[in-house]
Write a structure and sequence with these properties.
Number of domains: 1
Order of helices and strands: EEHEEH
Strand order of the largest sheet: 1-2-4-3
Number of helices: 2
Number of strands: 4
Length: 82
């Protein structure tokens, strides 16, 4: 089951963990995420392992609350699939 984005506070941010069946699927997702990030000029914090990716999306600048841009980017990430 997919885990949805979790909204956290102090500072405002969205977090999500995405699990994959194998390394190849993880790598392909990271490549698609890179293309999306370059296109939208939004760069989430990323940590990953062989079969997972953790994402943290913050408002820009950091002291702003989350807004439409962050939620729109999160939706675009969801559309990348896994």
């Amino acid at each position: 089951m997919e885990q949805p984005w979790t909204k956290r506070q102090r500072p405002d941010r969205l977090e999500r963990r995405i699990e994959f069946a194998d390394y190849e699927s993880t790598r392909l997702f990271l490549e698609r995420l890179n293309e999306l990030s370059e296109k939208q000029q939004r760069y989430p914090d990323i940590s990953f392992g062989r079969t997972y990716v953790n994402l943290t999306l913050r408002a820009e600048p950091d002291d702003n609350p989350l807004g439409d841009a962050e939620f729109s980017f999160a939706t675009a990430v969801d559309a990348l699939g896994n």
